Amino acid sequence: MDSAVTQKLKCPIAIKLTIPEDKLEEQKEGSEDCLYSDDYEAFNIPGVEYGISLYPNYDHVGESRFIFFVSLSNPIKIDANIKIEIKSANYIFEKNFVVFEGDYTEYEKLCTTEELFDTEKCFIVDGKMIIKIDGFFTIEKEAEDDTLLQCDNFDISLCLALWKQETKDFVIAAEGKEIVVHKWVLALRSPIFARMFESGMKEAEENKVIITDFSFIVVEKAIKLCYHQSLVPHSTLEEKMKFLQFFNKYDIQPLKNNLETYLITVLNELTVCRLTNAALLSNATKLETKCTEFLKDSIKKKPISDFDILDKDFALNLFKGTFCHMSEA
């Protein structure tokens, strides 16, 4: 039985196609040619291209049609969700469809050719027509390999046997739930826990610490990672970002460094803003640097998801740097 775990991968798509009125007029009487955008690659789905085109008078039948197309160089199932908008004419078209292989073309009537050139319909304004398209391609793929979270070469059977031992002597509590661990494992991983145990603090005397700034699920999985990554076979991106904060707070550097390296590999338009905030909260300088470089490179070229959640001070400095004019005296 195949036990592979799959995850959904989303790719945002967006095109703004501006067509001069004189180009539309040239096609008014009908033509085998059309007015089309460039072809664009889906940035995180290899071998996938897409674009949009417009026939002002499709096949001489007095209809204006637009065509959205997807080209696949390799067989793959894509769930597509698109929205095409002509704001000046209050026109919106939305469609969900599935692409499996080869070339896929979605034809849709926009209006009659007469209506397209009717000034009251406002498809053409100030000598041009502007068509905007946005949406998502979604595919299923095997979940990312989490082996980068592993920081030791200890035999898995040894680690699992250690985790199952009844000699655990310290309790970590969060949200009213508890997990029991070995003091020496925490001391080995974290100099902060080591100092806690040596200082005679209340936690050391009671053999218990209460953590209030992380959920129990995050605490439990982060502690298990201190034993071996095989104890946490799968976790969400949000959990991984919380692990990074946990490892930073308790100075668990080997795991933090490896997790930071892993998160850099999943950096894209959908994750960059969340990863940036996680990097800032976790003092993860390598991840912060990579996120900054990615944002500077993408901000003028590609749509970025969740930009509104980006740390405000970071965003302000980013804009200052990105839009600074370069001058030589």
TrEMBL record:
<dbReference type="Pfam" id="PF00651">
    <property type="entry name" value="BTB"/>
</dbReference>
<protein>
    <submittedName>
        <fullName>BTB domain-containing protein</fullName>
    </submittedName>
</protein>
<feature type="domain" description="BTB">
    <location>
        <begin position="168"/>
        <end position="235"/>
    </location>
</feature>
<dbReference type="InterPro" id="IPR011333">
    <property type="entry name" value="SKP1/BTB/POZ_sf"/>
</dbReference>
<dbReference type="InterPro" id="IPR000210">
    <property type="entry name" value="BTB/POZ_dom"/>
</dbReference>
